[in-house]
Amino acid sequence: MFWPALFAIGVAQGLFLVTLILLRRSENVLAARLMIGMLVPMVISHVGYFVIRTDFLYDLPQAFGFSFGTVFLFGPLFYLYTRAILDSDFHWTRASWLHFIPYAIQLIINMPFLLEDKAIWIGFIQTFLTGDLRIDTYPKIAFAAQNTHLLVYLVVTFKWIRSRNASSARTSYLVPILARIRWVKALMVAFGLFTATVLSLYVFIVINGKYDPVTNYVYTLTTTGIIYYVGFVLVLNPQIVSPDFNQKYRTYMPFDGDGGEAYVRKLKSVFDDDKLFTNPDLKLAVVAAALKLPQHQVSKLINEKFGKSFTDLVTEYRVREFISRVNDPAHQSHSFLAIALDVGFSSKSAFNSAFKKTTGKTPSDYRKNP
Question: What's this model's pTM, rounded to 2 decimal places?
Fold first, then answer.
């Protein structure tokens, strides 16, 4: 009962992952579909082996043949999946279907056998289960072609990742490109182990001259490992499996209309009410954090709505606050320098220069003629 239970668990886990990916409705629909495309053949393989190890063999023996040749799918699906999560410009085209020609050929060749009567299938499977089913020349060629095909796609995918445009890797996406590359490389290792396992099993049955059911079970065991690994990652980091290309911050944000005025009011509030400008070490980053905008957007907002730079705006607020306090009886006992330092100027020279630039007068002239 060990193997049937293992196959059943694999089917259940695979279907659960497919359902979960579908329910998440990722913005990267192509990546989600390609991941499902990799999982479905694994589930079908588990279904086939579950059938032949249970009484379902006598009801649906053809299910065993549904997975024949599906190794031809893994390479193209993995390559296209990698492109879909790493290249924002990648889209499915008619040419994408060309990757699946080897599988289509294999399916056409297998079709007459898949359409055989149930009795023939039952006899074929029973011979297979006893270990007496000989491996003919065509299956040897087909298995070798499948292994080579998958290995070539893994190499091509690896080279594509290495040659990827460095500029796109610097783009700040919500799901970083480097995190995606780490995920793809981990998945590549999993498929690499799968390829090594399948190749070893192929060599074994060629030397033996007959199919060994246990070797095929081990093949399915490796796909179970991949299914569970994908599930593990999907639970810990659901965004990584089908990440979109939303950037952390938009490179351009229009500040016209109500949205722009709202940011203007918020900016005035942090200056007029919170008096952020009185901090002598005030940086654009501090204001950006208060407005919950990236720094370049705050700079753009100030340029568009106030017609000046961030530094000039801060200076203007400090000078205004200085004049307000000088004219306030509560500050009559304070010197000009004390007030200047209190409103955010870092030194007497910085204050004098800023005051003259803003008002057209020196502090001394202002004292004589406010």
Answer: 0.67
**Structural domain count of the chain:** 2
Here the CATH number for the domain that contains residue 150 is: 1.20.1070
- Dist. CA 298–CA 284, nearest whole Å: 8
Name 247's bridge partners: 173
pLDDT digits (tens, 9 = 90+) for 156-203: 999 998 877 554 555 677 788 888 999 999 999 999 999 998 888 888
E strands present in 126-183: none
The C-alpha atoms of residue 230 and residue 246 are separated, in whole angstroms, by 23
Q: Are residues 230 and 276 in the same domain?
A: no
Q: Say if residue 103 is in the same domain as residue 192.
A: yes
SS3 assignment, position 173: strand
Do residues 308 and 298 make contact, with C-beta atoms less than 8 angstroms apart? no
Comparing CA positions, the residue from 102, 106, 94, 100 lying closest to residue 79 is: 100
The reply to whether 105 and 187 lie within a common domain is yes
Q: CA–CA separation, 364 vs 356, rounded Å?
A: 10
Q: Which long-range contacts (CB under 8 A, 24 or more apart) does 336-343 make?
A: 336/363, 336/367, 341/280, 342/278, 343/277, 343/278, 343/318
Answer yes or no: do 264 and 233 share one domain. no
Q: Exposed (0-12), middle (13-18) or buried (19+): which is 43, by Cβ within 10 Å? A: buried
The range of the structural domain enclosing residue 59 comes to 2-240
- Quote the CA–CA distance of 236 and 118 in Å, as a whole number: 44
Collapse the DSSP code of 247 into the 3-class scheme (helix H, G, I; strand E, B; otherwise coil) and give the result. strand
Which residues partner with 173 through β-bridges? 247
Same domain for 209 and 74? yes
Stretches in the chain below the pLDDT threshold 70? 165-171, 247-259, 368, 370
Domain identity same for 129 and 74: yes
Residue 198 lies in a domain: yes
Cβ atoms 289, 334 nearer than 8 A? no
Which residues are CB-neighbours of 31 under 8 A, at least 6 positions away?
A: 81, 84, 85, 241, 242, 243
